[in-house]
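Hi Q.,

Before the meeting this afternoon, I wanted you to have the zinc ion prediction in hand. No need to reply - just skim if you have a minute. The sequence and ligand are here:
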Amino acid sequence: MQERTIFYEKVKERLIRYAKVDTQSDRYGKDTPTTQKQFDLARMLFDELNAIGAGEVRLDESTCVVTAKLGSTMPDGGGKPFGLVTHMDTAPDAPGTNVKPWVLEAYDGGDILLNAERGIVMSPKEFPNLLNYVGQDLILTDGTTLLGGDDKAAIASVMTFAEHCLAHPEIPHGPVSLAFTPDEEVGGLAKDLDLDRFGAKVAYTLDGDHLGFYMDETFNASEATLEIKGLSVHPATAKGIMVNAADVAGEFLAMLPRFEKPRYTAGREGFFHVIAVNADVERAKVVLIIRDHDRIRFEHREAYLEKCADALRAEYGADRISLTIEQSYRNMKEYVGREPYLIENLTEAIRMAGLEPKTEPFRGGTDGSALSERGLPCPNLSAGYENAHGRFEYVPIPSMEKNVEILLHLAALFGSLQDE
Ligand SMILES: [Zn+2]
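Predicted structure with the ligand bound:
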């Protein structure tokens, strides 16, 4: 059986309340934020931050970014400032409207009936991660929507941490900046977070599954688009004249290395991944993404695509082939690595909370990847949710309680550092 901490009711009430607010973002939305309903949670957090007595609380009405600050409680008012960044939106991959969170107390390790009416069951046979939480209280869905513990479990922990710090000025910590951002799930990359206003020069995102995990390594990522202009003539008289753009696209696809694709790669192996092909005789367009943890190998991948394009230009004419490569984000490792205390303090705080810190290279990017590149080194601490982006998402309440503890230890460690 789990022992409930003083944070139990707080994080539980918060996650349930936040989860009921529909904040799903829109992959195809052109506005900022991509959906207006994200303001519903932003306003709730704004009011709550004011109510608990946070400083400089602000909701930017044009970007939907909420920021606030906790002042230093160190005797000399010092300590090294750091920030915490969480996202308010939920993924478009599963229904996010009408979320009905509920609590299962003392999970017994068996099948969980999520929805009697529809016969929806979550079983540890299908989701063995459930067995890590036997005896714990879980917050679950009714099997028809996602929960939104990604990333509202993190928001619940951060708000409870902030509330506790503000109610207990005798707890020593340095200045802490808080940010709640929209559109993480649709590649927003926290681009509208105003770093001057945010204040701290280093930060952590709280996102990701499995309690006690942290992450300081992501992919380097870019997106490439190959466009081919064909030349259509009647096939009967096409000899030596026709350029079939669809065929050229096929040639290009055949040049991509057979086993350097998501299906055949894991760990630190990078890949090319074709996400769209549109082709007829006159026109073709191939869109693919490039991923690699290693900067040199990543650059070689981009150069390889240039080489493919050059070969096609030599064959069909330079003006028929255009290749553009747009950078998406960079591996945060090189930025985070320059501030070694970021990971030292984080792993120390995780240990102080009684957990063994675990990490692995992340096969993706985070808002922290983009923030790191913008000058805010920003590794990630897991939010502790499970089965995100789907109808079987759940959050063990003790994971949120632990994260509050980790944040309190982290704040104390930063409080004892000098700010240069
Ligand atoms: Zn997330």
